């Protein structure tokens, strides 16, 4: 049975409420792997002192924090996310400031009475079931001279940290990713991303490609940490595999990582990221 959009959103919110603390500790707060892009996003969207900025799907507030340092005391920043747990971490991670607020909102349903100079959105557009609705909300929240900065992961074959496991797991557990869930790499090419943003009415669209690198350690580290950090619904599916199939799955994943494994046994994955900027 396919998930309805509302069911997918509820499921995603539940998962993010669970994984936000370890996501923050393992990835976002230490700027490793794909989060090397945070500084690039801030640079490309060209935030100035006094700007009013919305950081949509702000997660644990890592991008928000950098924005706050750019706009200074004369600017204003709102970090917004659907996950209550992520917002709590974001508030703790960011110092309390009079010109910084965090709110819980749905990207497809929000409205602000005041307009922003800039809206940023890092690693979230592909999660929105109705990306057009979210993008049109973003555009309606901008001043006429406003601009956006959006980061997405590249196509799955360009992000083998994920695909090495997911392509293998789905051979053994076909519903590992629920039917009806949006394709998370549907904006993973420059043309697909540009097309989606253009459809929402934005202009002067520019997409830059970056390839970062990330080492999860040796294979056993990579596999063990994947099992450790995945959310409960996925872990339950993996735990449901019998021993022999789980062993076969692990071997299949290992074979996919060989091309990224150095002589000392350390894996070094490339990680493609696309960063888009556009004007109202």
Automatic annotation (TrEMBL):
Q: Which domain of life is it from?
A: Archaea
Which residue range or ranges hold the Methyltransferase domain? 48-163
Q: A GO biological process this protein is involved in?
A: methylation
Provide this UniProt record's keywords sorted from A to Z: Methyltransferase, Transferase
Keyword presence, Methyltransferase: yes
MF term (GO), any? methyltransferase activity
Q: Which CDD domains match?
A: AdoMet_MTases (cd02440)
User: Which InterPro entries is this protein grouped with?
Assistant: Methyltranfer_dom, SAM-dependent_MTases_sf
Its recorded name reads: Class I SAM-dependent methyltransferase
